Predict the 3D structure of the following.
Amino acid sequence: MNHLAVTIGDPAGIGTEVVLKALANLSLTESCEITVIGSHSILELTYQHLLQQGISQDSLANPDSLNILDLPYDDDLTFGLGNRDTGKASFQYLEKAIALTLEGKFQGIVTAPIAKSLWKQAGYNYPGQTEVLAQAANTDRYGMLFVARSPYTGWMLRTLLATTHIPLSEVPQSLSPELMNLKLDLLIECLKGDFGINNPKIVISGLNPHSGEAGQLGTEEIDWLFSWLETARKNYPQAELIGLLPPDTMWVKPGQAWYGELKPNKNNIPAMNNGADAYLALYHDQGLIPVKLMAFDRAINTTIGLPFIRTSPDHGTAFDIAGKGVADATSMEAAIALAREISKIRERK
């Protein structure tokens, strides 16, 4: 049976709430064992607090019914008020999950949100959980893939970022043929290994408005991106590589595939989607603004290129609503479900 670790993230955030809400869905644990890594006392505190907020018992997993690897938290805790101590705890939960996964106890890790600023206060200087995972796995060959399934059409959106958490001013200098080769290779490998797509259709964005418009709005495309793409088409004959599409219009077809075309027709039947298997965006907001517009409550961040599975809900700690009982666990449920699905696919190989 597949075995996954689920970390609770920052104790002051919504991590414990979405974990308890997600694990109330018993279908997630079918043919999959789940160990929650965090503090039993915080999970119990959250459980009792949410019951007092009027959340029904049926909507929450009772901590006493869960398999919890308890890392005690002895400091004071106020929901919504993270600090150095909660930052330290969230790092230790992740660190423990990674260590046990590398030992072979778990096939994958599902991570609840952390606060990067509180990691820094606690002395952990990492851009995010992704970089900690990659360092522990001793690899610089990894990527951030965002996945979501449309509740309207069933189509699956997959978006990989070429660059991630860097200032916008550094993006043109950070992009290179070598980096694009790395990300495209990872994406094709992931689509085949984790999703069973052997001949993918991948759309690749330009960098500048109108993809540079023949050098009038930026020269990166004509300087090297178009020639890189032509070489990539020769190197990956199994893939249909479309691009470089202007960054604004690139998201029109994914939007139609996600929502279904809203044009009226006499039978009131949604048009067939024409979305691609994956999209390669060149920088953070270019990829994540449309992802969050379409799928904010159900998108999943999955780190590809690691020797184990890692997924995470695509939202933050939400300190402003922590402890209020209103956090939406859809993304956490989807993150657990995707990790379970990928582990089954890998197990069959």
In short: The domain at 141-305 is CATH 3.40.718.10 (Isopropylmalate Dehydrogenase). The chain has two domains: 1-139+306-349, 141-305.
